[in-house]
Write a sequence for this structure.
């Protein structure tokens, strides 16, 4: 009896799913070849966030109130910053929770950019986070958070997970705004 005749096989065929996903990955190279620069930029941002997370974990970012100290130093030099004053009390009182939110968010961003999975919603979250950190922690003359914001918005608008990423498989099979 053939499977097309309605017979039930003893073992499921998960290899077929992986085969179609691998074929979709290879097909994404030719279909969205113009997104190669975005794929390289996505992998660079993965390395950037992976380096930031490992540096924060090694330096004791989760055990020491670095975030609270940075805010205190920023608020001393600021003359009038409504955004900083409205968030500083909340962050300084709950620095442990906020430190974990920042580190876990950066881990999720790095994993998403590496796999190319759910790049649009994660890039939206990353753009909000980087803009938030720009207004809170940015020093004079250093605009790295603002540059990261621009890159994340570009990833979100283009859907950078489709080239060399898992998003192409889902984009091809289930069209939607996430991919």
């Amino acid at each position: 009896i053939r499977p097309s005749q309605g017979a039930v096989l003893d073992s499921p065929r998960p290899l077929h799913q992986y085969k179609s996903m691998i074929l979709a990955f290879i097909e994404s190279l030719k279909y969205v070849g113009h997104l190669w620069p975005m794929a390289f930029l996505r992998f660079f941002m993965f390395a950037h966030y992976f380096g930031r997370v490992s540096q924060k974990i090694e330096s004791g970012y989760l055990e020491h109130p670095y975030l609270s100290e940075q805010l205190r130093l920023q608020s001393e030099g600021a003359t009038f910053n409504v955004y900083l004053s409205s968030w500083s009390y909340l962050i300084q009182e709950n620095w442990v929770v906020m430190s974990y939110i920042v580190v876990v968010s950066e881990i999720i961003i790095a994993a998403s950019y590496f796999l190319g999975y759910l790049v649009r919603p994660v890039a939206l979250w990353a753009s909000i986070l980087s803009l938030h950190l720009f207004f809170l922690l940015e020093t004079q003359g250093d605009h790295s958070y603002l540059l990261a914001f621009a890159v994340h918005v570009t990833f979100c608008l283009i859907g950078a997970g489709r080239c060399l990423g898992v998003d192409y498989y889902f984009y091809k099979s289930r069209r939607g705004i996430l991919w």
Notes: The chain has eight helices and no strands.
